[in-house]
Amino acid sequence: MLWYNALMRKGFYDQDSWTDKINIKDFLKKPQTVAFLLTFSTILVVGIPALLIFGNFKYSNEKYQKGLFATKWEAIPEAGRAENAAITDEESAKRAAIIYEGDEDYTHVIGTADPETVTIGFAGDILFDPNYAVGDAFRRAGNTAEGVVGQSLLEKMRGVDIMMVNNEFPYSNGGSPTEGKTYTFRAAPETSAILGTMGVDIVGLANNHAYDYGEQAFLDTMATLSNAGIVYSGAGNNIDEASHPVYYITSNGMKIAIISATQIERNDYPDTKPATEDSAGVFRCMNDALLLERIREAREKSAYVIVFIHWGTESTSEIDYLQRDQAKEIADAGANLIIGSHPHVLQKIDYVDGVPVVYSMGNYIFNSKTLDSCMIITTLHKDGAVNLQFVPALQSGCTVTEATGSEHDRIINEMAAMSPGIHIDYNGYISPK
Description:
The protein is α/β, with parallel strands linked by helices. The protein has helices spanning 2-10, 24-29, 31-55, 70-73, 90-97, 133-140, 151-159, 193-198, 214-227, 239-243, 289-300, 321-333, 405-418; strands at residues 80-81, 107-110, 117-126, 162-167, 202-204, 231-233, 235-236, 246-250, 255-262, 281-282, 304-310, 337-341, 349-352, 355-358, 363-365, 371-381, 385-396, 399-402, 422-424, 429-432. The strands form 3 sheets. Strands 1, 3, 4, 5, 6, 15, 16, 17, 18, 19 and 20 form an 11-stranded mixed beta sheet that branches. It has a 7-stranded mixed beta sheet with strand order 2-8-9-11-12-14-13. A two-stranded antiparallel sheet has the order 7-10.
C-alpha cells in the first residue's frame, strides 16, 4: 500500500482509469521513471554480482574465508577418507554391524541425527571439584552446565551423536588425597549429573588425576559413571577392561572405536596406578605395545579408530618428542584420528602419515584462568569422507564460551600459525596441505 500511495503522489498512475492500472506511455515519459530504471538496471548488472563476489571472497596469504553467504553455501572440505568406515554396499554394512565375541559389554548401538553421517564431538579438561573455583561455579549453578558453558557450545555438544570430554578427577565421597601430590581433585557422585546437562556420552579416565583419592575413589568413579549412564574409556578393574576399545555401532551402519590411554606421569612409579592383570587402574601407554595392538584389533573389526590420549608437557604450545614419536606409531598402527589432552593449552593440529592429530584441546572448563580453548567436531560420512572442525572457544572467569568476533579471528589465526601442515578456514574446517 505504501508503494501504491507513493506512485499515486508521483503521478505514475492514471487516476481516471477505474482499474488503477499504470498508464505505460505517461509512465515512461517521466524523468523519475528513467532515473528509477537506470538505477535498477545498475543494481542488476553490477550490484548483485558484486555482492556475490564479496560474499565468497577469500583472503589470500594464509588468511581465511569470511563471506557474507559463505556459511550457507560453502562446501565443507574433507579432512580425509576412512574407507574402513565407509558403507558402500550391503556386505560392508553387515561387517560393521557385527558385535564380536568379548566386545558385548563395550559396544553401544546408537541412532544418528542424519541418516548419512555420524558426528563426534570432543572437548578437553573438565573439573567439578567444589573446592576449586570452577567446581564451585557448577555448584552455584545447581550442578548444571547452564550458565557455566555458553549456550552455543551446549547446543553443539548436545547436537552431536557422540560427545566426549576428558574427566580429570574422581567421583567419590571417600578416599584420601595422594600424599605429596600438589593438586588433588575429587567431586561428589551427584555432580556426574552435570555431564548429562552438557550432552556428554563418554569420558576419558586415562589421565593423571583419576586416582587422586586412591583405589576406592577410583572404583567409585567407574560405578558412578555407569549408574549415570555415562560410558568411560581408559580405566577398568584390570588391564583388559582399561585398554579395551569402546565401540559405537550406528543405526546407519558405521562403527567407531574409541581407545583412551595416558603417558602421564612419565616415570616408573606413577601416583596414578596403571591397570594390571589383577588390579584396577588406568591404561598407561609409555610402552605403547598394547595400545598399538588394540588399534590394529579395532581396525580389523571394520571400525573408524579414534585414540584419545593424555600426553605432552603442561603449559606449552610446543609438542614434545614423546608426542611426536607416539603420534607416528599410533598412525602407522591404523588409527584414523588422534585427539590429545593434558597440556592445558592449545597445541597444533597436524597430519601424520595422513592421519589428523589434534595434539591438545587445552582446558575446556577446568579453572578460572583466561585461556584459549576449543571443541572438535568430526563428521563421518557413509561414503568414507571425513570432515574435521575446530570450534574456537574461550575459558575465562569459570565459564567457557564459543569465541566470536575478534577473539574468534585471533584464535583461528593463531591455530593456523602454529599448524603449518594444515589449511583451516574461517569456519574452522581443517584439511591437509
